[in-house]
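Take a careful look at the protein record below. Let me know whether the structure tokens fit the sequence:
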Amino acid sequence: MRVELLTVGKELLIGRTLNTNAQWIGRRLARVGLVMKVVTTVDDDLDEISSALREILRRKPDFLITVGGLGPTPDDMTLEGVAQGLHLRTKLNSQALSMIKEHYVRRGLAAIELTPARRKMAVLPLGALPVPNDAGTAPGVRLVAGQTVIFSLPGVPSEMRSIYRGSVEPEVKRKLGPLARKTFRIKMTGLMESAMAPLISRELKRHPGAYIKSHPRGIEDGVSKIEVDVAVVARDMKAARNEALRIVEEIVEASTAAGATIKSRSDEP
């Protein structure tokens, strides 16, 4: 199953803001057995958003998640860019407007004026459905384009995570079906990453569906340090754990034979 992410915001491109949303979503997907295929980041610009959207949809992902640009300010234009990319009109959505009103009521601001900027957060592409945002004002949005389900989420991390947990992840899991993921981390010394490379290549040939990745951790007192992550996804935890353990045992045996000292082998969440 293919999932792609489109993050929107100049602050991400100029280094003002670290893209922690992409990291968080990538980790959540990995927990259910998926690897996010592509992360695209664009400026707050209608043409950039719409062209990136069309480029992504040409790859026909099962899910496209956009993050950022749903707020009341002029540079919040993700939904307009999505509409432009899909050749759709936008319209004030009464359900989304009700969600915004309810948010202000919950905050004790029932009398607040729904200015054009606030109403803007309820203007959605035609055919889109608002998704509840329990942590903020702007609703999330769900829209289907061909075979792709598009979710648009706010860029504020707490709001993004709330909507993702409540609406996006359950739908991803339903489509994916039951999967189990087991991971291990091996820490060793005395072996350079270049020496580890052929060992990992051999393991990937033996276990083509596994994730095996080395991470060099520098050299201390002339001794190299390296970590190796192993992850296996299967239809049940027993199968995932058994294959992951086989890979770990094979890596440990081959690394030790090549001169490494194994410091630890641990389960990773």
User: Anything to note?
Assistant: The mean pLDDT is 95. The chain has nine helices and twelve strands.
